[in-house]
Design goal:
binds heme C, mainly alpha
């Protein structure tokens, strides 16, 4: 189980440690603070799911954690759109 948890944590944080190629360095400065809060909440929710799996929680409890994660996704999607700069 520890191997799975470690694999999830590594995959979940890989993009934070190494931004995808093609993302300009100036991008980080353009991200709104509210976006950071939502994105950070999403990562914490992912960590919470990983913790639940590591603790061998029931599927029902894990689905509860997933539901919280999905609310985070939906909240951000309801608030933001990506549009190309003119
Ligand atoms: C911090 C904000 C934010 C969070 C949190 C977030 N997203 Fe997104 N996501 C976006 C934005 C912005 C887009 C681009 C949507 C657009 O411009 O129409 C997007 C697009 C997507 C797309 C592509 C949709 C398409 O039409 O091509 C998927 C799939 C997606 N998100 C899944 C997720 C999932 C799953 C989660 C949660 C685990 C999540 N996102 C959390 C901001 C976020």
């Amino acid at each position: 189980m520890e191997t799975s948890r470690q694999a999830m944590l590594e995959r979940g944080t890989a993009r934070l440690k190494s931004p995808p190629p093609g993302r300009p360095p100036s991008f980080a400065h353009k991200i709104p603070d509210a976006w950071r809060v939502l994105a950070s909440g999403m990562h914490q929710s992912y960590d919470s799911v990983a913790e639940g799996i590591a603790d061998k929680e029931t599927a029902q409890r894990l689905m509860g954690r997933m539901a919280k994660l999905m609310r985070n996704c939906a909240g951000c999607h309801a608030s933001y759109r990506l549009i190309a700069a003119p």
